[in-house]
Amino acid sequence: MLEALWYREGFTAAEFERFPVLDKATLSGVLDRLAEAGWIRKAPDPDDGRVVRLYTAEYDNPFIPL
């Protein structure tokens, strides 16, 4: 999941569900734990407040210059 976010910031959990690796319940728990540990951050979508976008933490993304 982190690698996917490195290449495309702003995925939603629903977009991750298209990958047949984890079911919805497992994915939700994994994303919550990654956010709590500081690996990803969640931000509301500016166009639709019901949607939460996922981003890697800046220190974790090798494609963001430090």
Rg calc: 12 Å
Order of helices and strands: HEHHEE
Quickly give the CATH architecture.
Orthogonal Bundle
Strand order of the largest sheet: 1-3-2
CATH topology name, in short, is Arc Repressor Mutant, subunit A
* Low-pLDDT segments: none
Q: How far from one another are the termini?
A: 21 Å
**CATH class designation:** Mainly Alpha
Number of helices: 3
Count structural domains. 1
Q: What is the number of E strands?
A: 3
Describe the structure.
The protein has 66 residues and is α+β, with helices and mostly antiparallel strands. The chain has one domain: Orthogonal Bundle (Arc Repressor Mutant, subunit A), CATH 1.10.10.10. The chain is 35% helix and 18% strand. It has three helices and three strands, in the order αβααββ. A three-stranded antiparallel sheet has the order 1-3-2. The longest helix is centred in the middle third of the chain and has 13 residues. The radius of gyration is 12 Å and the shape is globular. It starts with a helix and ends in a 10-residue tail after the last strand. The model has no long low-confidence stretch (mean pLDDT 77).
